[in-house]
Amino acid sequence: MNLEFTGEMWFWKGPAPWHFVTVPEQECAELAAASAVVTYGWGMIPVAARIGETGWQTSLFPKDGRYLVPVKAWVRKAEGLDVGDVVTVRLTVDV
User: Fold this and answer.
1) Are 76 and 3 in contact (CB under 8 A)?
2) Is 95 a residue whose pLDDT tops 90?
3) Cβ count near 35 (within 10 Å)
4) 92: which residues sit within 8 A by CB, 6+ positions away?
5) Mean pLDDT, the chain, as a whole number?
6) Angle at CA of residue 76, ends 54 and 93, nearest 5°
7) For residues 3 and 27, is the Cβ–Cβ distance under 8 A?
8) CB–CB of 27/2 below 8 Å?
9) Where do the structural domains in the chain lie, given as residue ranges?
10) DSSP-assigned letter for residue 24
11) What is the 8-class DSSP label of residue 77?
12) Hey, how many other C-beta atoms are within 10 angstroms of the C-beta on 18?
């Protein structure tokens, strides 16, 4: 399954701070349908992610009926990204 969407990067300050992009509702519905086959626990979905020219392996976090794409520091640095930037994210889920 391949998905592409645009979203705003945001920062979560919690005990383990991270930058995320929230997957839009329509794409979340597609991911939820595939999650039973690919999740490895807690609803996490392993994916290959890409923003711009930078790709990485990660897992989507389920949160409030949506999924969050965690964006690692080295990815943000490579692409020159900061909080509030609107990015196009490409995800590949191996179903």
Assistant:
1) no
2) no
3) 18
4) 1, 2, 47, 48, 49
5) 93
6) 50
7) yes
8) no
9) 13-71
10) P
11) H
12) 15
